[in-house]
Amino acid sequence: MENLEPTSPEFRNNAIAIYQRLLREQPVAELSGGRYLLCRHEDVRWALRDHEQVLRPTDWSSARKPPGPFREFGLNNMIAMNPPDHTRFRKAIMRAFAPKQIATLTAFIEAKCDALLDDMAARESGDFIDDFAYPLPVAVICEMLGIPDDNHETLRKGSAAMLAGLELSASEEELARASDGAQTLYDYLHGLVTARAVDLGDDLLSLLLRHQQEDQLTREEVVWAAITLLLAGHETTTHLLGNGLLALIHHPDQLERLAGTPEWTKNAVEEFLRYDPSLYVLFRQTANDVRLDDTDIPAGSILILSLAAANRDPRVFDDPDGLDIARANADQHLTFAGGRHLCAGHAVARLEGQIAFERITRRLTGFELDGEPEAREGLMFKGYHRIPIRYRNRSE
Length: 396
Prior knowledge:
Elements (H helix, E strand, L loop, with lengths): L8 H5 L1 H11 L2 E3 L4 E4 L2 H9 L4 E2 L2 H6 L5 H7 L9 H10 L4 H5 L2 H18 L1 E3 H6 L1 H11 L6 H14 L6 H26 L6 H7 L8 H32 L1 H9 L4 H11 L5 E6 L3 E3 L2 E3 L4 E5 H4 L35 H18 E6 L4 E2 L8 E3 L1 E6 L3
Parallel strand pairs: 2-8
Antiparallel strand pairs: 1-2, 3-5, 4-12, 5-8, 6-7, 9-12, 10-11
Helix pairs in contact: 5-12, 8-10, 8-18, 10-14, 11-12, 12-14, 14-16, 14-18, 16-18
């Protein structure tokens, strides 16, 4: 396939159609610069789970970032690490995601959803991202970390700048803003961690500090772990909620089906994660020479793993381009990655999605777009800056 460049605007704007063609004709596609694009579910799942032959491309990722705090984040970000550093970080962070810890969030998520929906119901129009999809997950991760409410907007700007800088297509200006955002978040969270160290509470920062010595984390690494959790803990869930509602608006039969059978909400969230994932691609690097189909991939090659394509592989999913909230194997999607890099917060994201969509479809109906959604640019993350909508209260 000619001119196959995932970072180009043409590819980003037509990704699904290109992935469909690649799945049919070229599931292992050699790109320029020693890169290979993997689209098939079987191949992507292998690359996520084979930790002997496939590693995180830490040096490659860091080399793209300008010197300074954003590069430091890349080197100290658990998601980008390989063992033994990844093992230390994940052990510390996973304490916060034990089932008992997650269960304590249910009442908080329910109350926050209800408060946001009360405001939405009074207006019957607005921007779903600003009105619901952003404030819910940011409130949850800040509650977990113990971050005061009055700093949410600062955190939003800093994290948005950093995530834009993570894109392969990031411009010099976006990388500079990412460095500024990383510095802002580091300074704020370093101060918060320092203060929390002398007054431990029940929050995640206190949990990390309590186990700092046992888990062999430095104070600086606690700060970087907090930034990683902040970014990963709200942005992708915001897009899960936004992408999910937009999918329902485009499939009104599924919206009413979900409203009439709320017991399917858990499965519906899995289908939203499959159908339009927040994270479109991940990156890996081969540790050894490998062969996939008829393609020899040398050691040291960069693998671009298309989660979006794998989630629509017709070898795994019947009618993969359709939305079906009752799909029997929806949970076979790869949106949360896998293996030792399985998303640490997947259970929290799923819980937020389940509570949110159950309450949204119970309270509101008649969803329609009230303008064109504003999509975020980039290949790695898929979501929207704005989704203008109209709706009615279901009781009317």
